[in-house]
Design brief:
Keywords: Acyltransferase, Transferase. By secondary structure, this protein is an alpha+beta fold. It contains 13 helices and 15 strands. Strand 14 and strand 15 form a beta hairpin.
């Protein structure tokens, strides 16, 4: 369904208390430097909160006052990233807060979400000028009185786990929770910045399409069983199995073949907090993540070799404390990717990131948890983002491919047999 969204107000919300002078300049870490200047998006849906004009005003005031009280805990988000992307000027200038009206009921959106339409519920273009505002919020009121809270935070300052630390702290303050755990900053002391340029994501030349595929718990178990039954395979995790399945069906649908002038690799984003010495708490804020790289084996018939799960697992297990120490000393994974792909005419890559088991449904602003939450359409080719379904049993896969590749992928018989009916929309 095409959404008509009208922004009715814009304002800047500033922190409720000033940032101390000694914290006014926040240095980005080496891992922050490597992250692209893009926003991470999220939209949370709550029913029946804004059923009257009085409740709309009350809810808006509650959200603005609580985010104002939250920003002092996450002071870089209310500042501005410097032009050299080395520091954040923590000047307390604040974040945009937009209010909008949507021309339909909340149920029209969440019954069959269309990723590209969800972008209309966000305060920014995901690939706009991130340097101006590190964070922004858009409160979307539906005709039925439901609300969709759209949020963007720059990847230059926070990774996915940090993102939800911000969201859930905001919700806790909104509902009056006094048992708050202060976030921990200081990633630059662990991963000192280097004299490098950041990751630039070029505007894709091809038209991209985003679709959402839902795998039920029973289908996931079938897929895990398939890979468990293969010779010398231990039982894969849900993410290992789905990653292998999606890559193999993509390769089959688009006829990926081993050729002398082509090179394939797969990446998985890995959380480094538990892998550093000593381990860091979950509320450590910054980009504490890096890419595990798998070079999949493919035979001349295009068949994915049976050890793909093992290959993926081994690449992730490479991230031990010694490997993380290399990253702390300036080992650049981007340079490594450039090195292994040099000389090839065609580079085929596939990127996976997982939000499964993240606290995405623990967000309670004082009126209960969201009835659904999701991402949006991204402009990054061959990207898959996994997240839990509302019941925590299934998995949603948000997939971004070239338009022609998506047409082949979504028509693949094994994909169609494995997803929930009507589970994908562009």
């Amino acid at each position: 369904m095409k959404l008509e969204v009208e922004v009715v107000s814009r304002e800047i919300v500033q922190p409720s208390s000033p940032t101390p002078e000694q914290l006014r300049s926040y240095q980005l870490s080496f891992l922050d430097q490597l992250m692209p200047s893009v926003y991470n998006p999220w939209v949370m849906f709550f029913p029946g909160i804004c059923d009257t004009e009085a409740n709309i005003i009350k809810t808006s005031d509650q959200l603005k006052q609580s985010i104002s009280k939250t920003l002092p805990y996450f002071y870089p988000l209310a500042g501005r990233i410097t032009s050299d992307e080395m520091f954040v000027d923590c000047n307390d200038e604040g974040i945009p807060f937009l209010e909008a009206r949507v021309n339909c009921s909340l149920s029209d959106v969440i019954e069959n979400p269309v990723p590209s339409e969800l972008n209309k519920l966000l305060p920014f273009d995901l690939y706009g000028d991130v340097g101006e505002f590190p964070m922004g919020i858009q409160s979307n009121i539906f005709e039925c009185g439901g609300i969709g809270i759209g949020l963007c935070i720059t990847h230059k300052i926070v990774d996915a786990l940090s993102f939800f630390t911000v969201v859930n702290m905001w919700a806790a303050i909104s509902r009056g929770d006094e048992k708050l755990v202060s976030p921990q900053f200081g990633s630059a002391s662990l991963f000192p910045p280097r004299n490098i340029s950041g990751t630039i994501i070029p505007k894709p030349k091809e038209k991209l399409m985003n679709k959402r595929f839902v795998f039920s718990a029973s289908k996931i178990e079938e897929i895990r069983g398939k890979y468990t039954s293969l010779k010398n395979q231990t039982r894969p995790t849900r993410i290992e199995a789905l990653s292998s399945f999606i890559w193999s069906r993509f390769a089959a649908a688009t006829e990926v073949r081993p050729r002398p002038d082509s090179f394939c690799f797969i990446t998985h984003m890995v959380n480094l907090r538990t892998r550093i010495n000593p381990p860091l708490p979950e509320y450590s804020i910054g980009n504490f993540c890096s890419n595990a790289i798998t070079i999949p084996s493919i035979d001349e018939n295009g068949e994915i070799c049976h050890n793909l799960v093992t290959q993926m697992r081994d690449s992730i297990q490479e991230f031990d404390k010694e490997f993380v120490k290399k990253l702390q000393d300036g080992y650049n994974r981007i340079d490594y990717i450039k090195e292994i792909t040099t000389g090839y005419r065609e580079i085929i890559y596939f990127s996976f990131t997982s939000l499964c088991r993240f606290p995405i449904y623990e967000t309670d602003f004082g009126w209960g948890r969201p009835i659904w939450a999701g991402s949006a359409a991204r402009n990054m080719k061959n990207l898959v983002v996994f997240m839990d379904t509302v019941d925590g049993k299934g998995i949603e896969a948000w997939v971004c491919l070239k338009e022609e590749d998506m047409a082949k992928f979504e028509s693949d018989e094994e994909i169609l047999a494995s997803i929930a009916p009507k589970s994908f929309k562009d």
